[in-house]
Amino acid sequence: MKKILYLIASAALLLTACGKEKQEVRLLYWNIQNGMWHDQDNNYDNFVQFVKEQDPDICVWCEAESRYRSYTATKMAGCEEAYLPYNWDLLARRYGHNYMVLAGKRDTFPQVVTSKYPLKTVKRINGNGDDIIVVHGAGQVEVEIGDKTLNLVTLHTWPQKYAYLAEDQEASKAEQGGDVFRSVEMKYICEETILQDKDAAKNNWIMLGDFNAISSIDNFHYGIAEDDKQFLVHNYVRNNTPYIDVIEKFYPGDFQPSTQSGRRIDMVYMTEPLFKTVKAARIIRDGYAESHRDTTFRNFCHPSDHYPVVVDMEF
Question: Would you say residue 99 lies in a domain?
Answer without folding.
Answer: yes
